[in-house]
Amino acid sequence: MEKNNRNRSKKKDRKPKIRPIALAVSRHPSDHAFLLMNAFDSAKNEHFYRPLGGGIEFGETGEAAIRREMKEEINANVINLSLLKYFENIFTFNGKPGHEIVMMFSADLNDSSQYQIEKFEFTDGKNNNDHVTAVWRTIEQLQTSDHPLYPDGLINLLLSL
Questions:
Q1: What is the mean pLDDT for each group of 10 consecutive residues in the chain (161 residues)?
Q2: Interatomic CA distance for residues 83 and 53, integer angstroms
Q3: Which superfamily is assigned to 16-155 in CATH?
Q4: What's the pTM?
Q5: Which has the closest alpha carbon to 128: 80, 90, 76, 72?
């Protein structure tokens, strides 16, 4: 009984944690567009773009996380992984605060036929219940879009590539 009460109080006292994530930008060989997730924040009523990727599991490297996430999300094997930059991302998503340390990679798709796919569709989220699309977007499209690109500062990195 005492153990149960301790577990309940731990759950109540949980503080938000910093989450390590790995994201990757893949560049289309013909028009140099970037493959980005088209996501939606219902609390802000805001569509936005973000590179593909996700959480780094305990004992997993950032590179291994990208390989796993790209396989899970769009069934793609990636090659030529290169760490571009670290970002600290402090944000609010769906009304909840978030804090991430982001390892941003560049990655090429191993199967060149996947560059011909205009839109990737997959499920994501804790229960795999979020319908998500990933689309190719050029720098020009990102600069004129009303959809912001996250994490903040990523557009400047992409401009330098």
A1: 52 80 97 96 95 97 98 96 97 94 98 96 72 95 97 96 89
A2: 13
A3: Nucleoside Triphosphate Pyrophosphohydrolase (3.90.79.10)
A4: 0.88
A5: 72
